[in-house]
């Protein structure tokens, strides 16, 4: 019986600690947030361009390997 009573208190204590932690956290300003979003967008764009370039280079190489001169 006492274990059933402790579960809600554990949960409420856990939620209370989460609330206190989130209040103590320092949130970024609008300028810092926009700078972070821009950096993430540039990084994602760079990875997309890099993936496209690798695919573009490997397609002709794959076609050369697959279509060997001995096969018709």
Helical percentage: over 70%
Separation of termini? 80 Å
Q: Averaged pLDDT, please?
A: 87
By oligomeric state, this entry counts as single chain
Counted beta strands: 0
For the biggest sheet, the summary is: none
Question: Cα-atom Rg, whole angstroms?
Answer: 28 Å
SSE topology string: HH
Strand content: under 5%
Stretches where pLDDT is under 50 for at least 5 consecutive residues are: none
Shape: elongated
Give the class from helix and strand content and strand pairing: mainly alpha
Total helix count? 2
Structure summary:
With 72 residues, the protein is mainly α. The protein is built from two helices and no strands.
Structure overview:
With 72 residues, the protein is mainly α. The protein has a domain at 27-71. It has two helices and no strands. The longest helix has 37 residues, at 30-66. The protein is elongated and about 75 Å long. It starts with a helix and ends in a 6-residue tail after the last helix. The model has no long low-confidence stretch (mean pLDDT 87). Its main location: endoplasmic reticulum. It is found in: Endoplasmic reticulum membrane. It is a single-pass membrane protein. Pfam families: SecE (PF00584). This is Probable protein transport protein Sec61 subunit gamma.
